[in-house]
Amino acid sequence: MQQLSNTYRSELHGLYFLCKPNSAIIDVYIIDRKKVIYDEASEGGYICICPFTNDTPNAYAIIEHIEIKLDDFGALVTGIEIQLEHVTQENDTSKEHYIEHVIKALHAFRTGFMDKVVLAQRHHVPVSNPKPLEQYTSLLDNTDSYRYFFHIEGETTWMGASPELFLKCENNRLETMALAGTRKPSSLDQWGEKEVMEQAIVGEFITDQLKKHGFIDVELGKSFTKRQGNLEHICSPVYASCPDTIDWSMVFHSLHPTPALAGYPKNEAMWFIQHTEDFDRSLFGGYMGVVDGNQIDLFVNIRCARLHQNVYQLYAGAGLNNQSDPEKEWEETNHKLEIIRSILT
Fold this sequence. Notes:
Helix content is 24%, strand content 37%. The protein is α+β, with helices and mostly antiparallel strands. It has an 18-stranded antiparallel sheet that branches.
C-alpha cells in the first residue's frame, strides 16, 4: 500500500480524515493548505470549514482523495508526523462562572429578550506526549458519529466525533436533522417538557429556513431518541427536494448556527453568547465536511477538541430555556465533555 507520506507535504498541504456514521471506510483527503472563501472558490471538490461566528465557510481545495478501510488506516499514515503548536494554557470555565451565565440567561428569558440560548464551557487537558493519529484511531470506535481529523501545520488541528448532521445533499434530495435535548440513557419513552420544547424550536427553525429558500416538499420526520456514547438526544430528520437553482452559500448562512448551537432568535442568542462567554468558540459549534458541486455532506462540529503540543482544548455546550436548572446544565456539559475526554486521556 502506498503511504500517505509519499504525497503529503506539510508546507503545501493540509490533512482531513473523515469516517461517516456506521461506515467501515475512512475518506482521506490531502488538501491545499491555502484557504479561500467559499463564495470565491472555483469549480471542484472542497473541504469546507466554518467557525461558529463566520457567515461563510473557508474552503480548502481537495488535492487527492483516498478511500481506505478502517483496518488499513494505520499503514496508510505510517511516516506522517503531526506537528502541533505550543500555547499558553488558559483557565478552564469554572462551575461558578458557568452557573452565573445560566442565571443571566434565565433573566434574559424572563424579560423576553430570547427564548433559547446555548452556553458552552471550555476545558483543558494537559498533555506531554501527544499522539493525535493514534487517538484518532481510538475515536473511530464511535461508529454512530462523524469522526474527523483536520490539520493545517502551524495553524490549527482539530479532532472530534459528532452525532449531528448539518446538511446533506445527493441527487437533488436534501437531508438534515433537528437534534436537541440531552439526558443520560433512560428506559423512559417520554422526554421532559424542557427538552421537548428545546428540540421543537430547532425543528421549526430549520423547516422555515428551507422553505424560504424555495426547497420543495419540506418534511419534518417523526422524532426518535438518538444515543451517542453516554448520552441520548431527541432527533427529528428533515427532508426536502432541491429547487432548480440554489445559492448554497445563502442556505448555509441562513441555517448556521441553528438554535441547537446558538439559540433562538438567532441574532439575539449570538449577541448574548458573544457578550457572556469568556472564550472564542473557534470551530466548536461551526460545521465542516465535503462539498463537490451539489453533492454535499456537512456536519456540526461538536464533541470535539483543539489539539496543541502541551494541551488539548475541549468544548461542550448545553441548550437553555426558561425551565433550565443551572446545576443540571453544568452537569450536562460535563457529561458531553466526557465523550471526547475519555478518548484523549
